[in-house]
Design brief:
heterodimer; A: 218 residues; mainly alpha; Growth Hormone, Chain: A; 8 helices; elongated; B: 296 residues; alpha/beta; Rossmann fold; 4-stranded antiparallel β-sheet; 10 helices
């Protein structure tokens, strides 16, 4: 990708990355991050309790994972960004969320046995349960910005739009989960729902990416 | 009293809002809540989150500190009807410490473990409510779920377990699930009794009842018209017949009289009648929106 291509005038042709698709995907990813984060405390309470430090562990791990994700996603976006790679992030995040459903006890039990202090126990457990899927979800934000940006003049505006939408998604995920979803569904059902939503977005992006043909013409 | 200095009407106003008339002895914002200690006449109270209008957690009569003030605290002693001689007692939730303080006076030989999540509550109980840690009375600053799980691994056993960790406005949801109650059951000796202090109102009542029934089978439901609280009394074995409860009440009553516990009145109040909607869903680690259910 050179500067000349990046400064191409408004790309309205059939080859354009569909902004609505990217923006929607970012919304879903923001939603899912906070849904998993809200449920994180619930998932760990049986082993580590509901003290403030358990929340501290979860938030720390999510922040660290997002930080790493932003860095990696930003880096990857410089190398021939495509809808197909973007789709892979969603599919991978969906797959990496599944251990939260199927192996939570297997992960938390040995940590509970080995670490007596619930602060460090919950920190370790958060790392194993949430770090990988959240890192992948963090990669989505900078990558989405790259997909939306057509020229450098509007890059800040696009980034602003993207953060606006994905943070709105996060707000919706936080509220929806803590007010309603926990009342209607079991914890595992909700986590499964987020994984399914991420996978669905991944598949849609993949189809869109394939239809666009090769993505290196961005 | 300062009343003499104030116009009579204003004074009346003060008495109709007794909380305002109380003197604040101590205020503290802990990790979990605002803690206030108030004194009004001889009545000293521990109040959580006073600004949200929470109820008193514990009150003590400073002129007669042995005598329990709150109905629910007295009601807790109904559990003794099922096990009149506990030796290993576990109490989740310290408050002002009236339960461990009374129990250690009644049973000086008994080992009492108290679990309290908030160190500030422990400090306040010691400073203002005569709570003492002794050779037999120990406090663990920990989450009850973590403590109970670990006690299970260490194969510890208790013969009297009191769950008193709910405050007026918040239920720690992980302490009211089928899985938690199973973990509690696992650390109860065969003759042990579980006493849970909880609420008697709202839709939550149905879910809670169904959950307890699922784990313990039939249990005693203990409510008094004078109290918004509800005491659940359960055990692993089948519940004893009422005649047995009356016999225990007669023999134990003189010992608990000093604490203001009308034990003789209790056996007839223990009910096994199902007065809840049995079709409600049991609360589990997977489904435990207790606070939402309580508000609805």
């Amino acid at each position: 990708m050179n500067a000349k291509q990046a400064r191409r005038p408004n790309n309205q042709g059939p080859q354009a990355i569909p902004s609505l698709l990217v923006v929607s995907a970012a919304f879903v990813s923001g939603f899912c991050i906070m849904t998993i984060e809200m449920l994180g405390a619930r998932i760990m309470a049986p082993y580590f309790g509901g003290s403030l430090s358990v929340w501290g562990s979860i938030l720390t791990v999510f922040m660290l994972a997002l930080a790493c994700g932003y860095l990696i996603g930003g880096k990857l976006s410089t190398n021939r960004p495509s809808l197909l790679s973007y789709a892979l992030f969603f599919l991978t995040a969906a797959a990496l969320s599944l251990p939260i459903i199927f192996f939570a006890d297997e992960i938390m039990r040995p940590i509970f046995l080995a670490v007596e202090d619930p602060r460090y126990g919950s920190l370790l457990a958060s790392l194993f349960l949430y770090f990988l899927p959240t890192t992948i979800l963090g990669m989505i934000s900078p990558y989405s910005v790259r997909l939306l940006v057509e020229n450098s003049d509007h890059s800040g505006q696009k980034a602003g739009l993207l953060f606006f939408v994905s943070t709105l998604g996060s707000a919706a995920g936080t509220l929806g989960t803590s007010f309603y979803l926990v009342l209607w569904f079991e914890v595992n059902e909700i986590v499964f729902g987020t994984a399914a939503a991420l996978a669905l977005i991944g598949v849609i992006l993949m189809i869109a990416g394939t239809q666009r043909g090769h993505a290196n013409d961005l | 009293m300062t009343c003499r200095l104030w116009p009579a009407l204003f004074c009346l106003g003060l008495f109709s809002a007794p909380f305002l008339a109380a003197e604040t002895l101590h205020e503290e914002r802990s990790l979990y809540r605002d803690i206030t200690v108030t004194q009004e006449g001889n009545r000293r109270c521990l109040v959580f989150n006073v600004h949200r209008g929470d109820r008193n957690q514990t009150c003590m009569n400073t002129a007669d500190p042995e005598r329990l003030v709150f109905e629910y605290a007295k009601m807790t002693f109904a559990g003794l009807l099922l096990n009149p001689n506990p030796q290993n007692i576990l109490i989740a939730g310290l408050g002002g410490g009236s339960l461990p303080t009374t129990l250690t006076k009644l049973y000086p030989e008994a080992k009492i473990d108290v679990i309290e999540i908030d160190q500030a509550v422990v400090n306040v109980a010691k400073r203002f409510f005569d709570f003492e840690e002794t050779v037999n009375v120990k406090v663990a600053v920990n989450d009850a779920r973590v403590f109970v799980k670990r006690a299970g691994l260490l194969e510890q056993r208790y013969d009297f377990v009191i769950l008193d960790a709910f405050t007026g406005d918040y239920i720690p949801e992980h302490l009211l699930t089928e899985e938690f109650l199973e973990e509690v059951r696992a650390i109860m000796s065969p003759d042990a009794v579980l006493v849970a202090n909880t609420f008697s109102t709202s839709r939550f009542y149905d879910h809670e009842s169904v959950t307890y029934q699922k784990v313990f089978g039939e249990f005693f439901n203990f409510k008094l018209p004078s109290s918004g609280n509800r005491i659940i009394i359960a055990r692993n074995e089948a519940l004893p017949p009422r005649g047995e409860l009356n016999a225990v009440a007669r023999s134990l009553s003189p010992r608990v009289e000093a604490f203001g516990v009308p034990l003789l009145e209790y056996p007839n109040r223990l009910s096994t009648r199902v007065d809840w909607d049995m079709s409600r869903r049991a609360l589990t680690d997977q489904y435990s929106p207790s606070n939402l259910l309580r508000d609805n």
